[in-house]
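Record type: monomer structure entry
Structure origin: computed from sequence
Chain ID: A
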Amino acid sequence: MQGIDAYIAVGVFVAAYAMIVAERVHRAVVALTGAAVVVFTGVLTQERAVAAIDFNTIGLLVGMMIIVAVTRRSGVFEFLAVFAARLARGEPWKILVALAVVTAVLSAFLDNVTAVFLVVPVTLAITRTLQLRPLPFLVAEIMASNIGGTATLIGDPPNIMISGPAGLGFVDFIVNLAPVAAAVFVVTVPLLVLIFRRRLVADPELQAAILKMRPQDYLHDRPLLYKSLTVLGLTIIGFILHQFVHLPPASIALGGAAILLLVTGSEPEDVLRDIEWGTIFFFAGLFVLVGALEETGVIRLVAQLTLDLTGGEVVATGLLILWVAALASTIVDNIPFVAAMIPLLQEVGRLGGVADLEPLWWSLALGACLGGNGSLVGAAANVVVAGLAEKHGYPIRFVRYLAVGFPLMLLSIVISTGYLLVFTFR
């Protein structure tokens, strides 16, 4: 390690981590302040700090946020949620399953934070109509968002972050992660219904009120709907083909966003106000903090310790990464954890002479994405749902969620362990 610079880099990173977990200061402010400190102290030059920021992650997030911001104005996402509730015939347990499915699908093909932003307000309206406490439905949506987001490159921020350095494409994620994500979903949702079964009972007259809700009433702008879904569909096709046309995901997402703004005539100022700029700047600052750890040799030291612990054996290393990522993502947000792990895995490959790191990337993705279900602070989607619930007068208690989420998270990691041993580490 490089002496005092390494201690500064570690100290700033640990302090930032602690402040992010404490949630007393907005995480974007924490990350940017930490980035400023490592530049002002000379740990990184400005040029090295800018180079540490992964544009593919930033560009992909901004592009998809623009597409979703325009598309949501058509009302299509509310339409899907109400349609699912009507399809369930107003029966609470069926509604929970239906909304979990909608959340998982939206999480896979948009992103999980956006998915819960869209589904939770409709969920609260439905539970008010049924005069039910929304906790079971919100817990199901948190878990479904992280499980669904695990399945694709664009579904969960950790996957977006991993894709560039790992050189993995949209199809790679679907082929390698969608099957295990589907298996975890199929196991998790029935268990949630079983856990909350006593709370999923409503008056038949109130159930009839759900059937009177008209999904079509939520479609505000059909021309916008058709244009948005067309561009969204083409963008997803672009993601599927990007490995063959040699275009990075960020370029496809930003290109799709530009085309959608053009064909819909949307005012850029209005759309850009809907972008979660706090998330974007959080990522930028975080990349600089991790860049400082890499520049000063801290990442290399930790990688060597990992190799010493596992003997460089791929299966042992992969399973260690899976379980450490899952447990760490329960304690802290999975995004900063993955940001620190990416260069670590790259260094493990160099030091250990591991030619094929792909199994280790899948271990990290599964551990971080599914581990986010372990607690309310495990993933950004969890925090968003908790915030929306509290805003509407239904706070989710940390310990109450932990009692349900942590055991189910552990079960999902056990399933992932079996999947990796059978299908990945061969």
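Annotation 1: The chain has a mean pLDDT of 88.
Annotation 2: The two ends are 35 Å apart (CA to CA).
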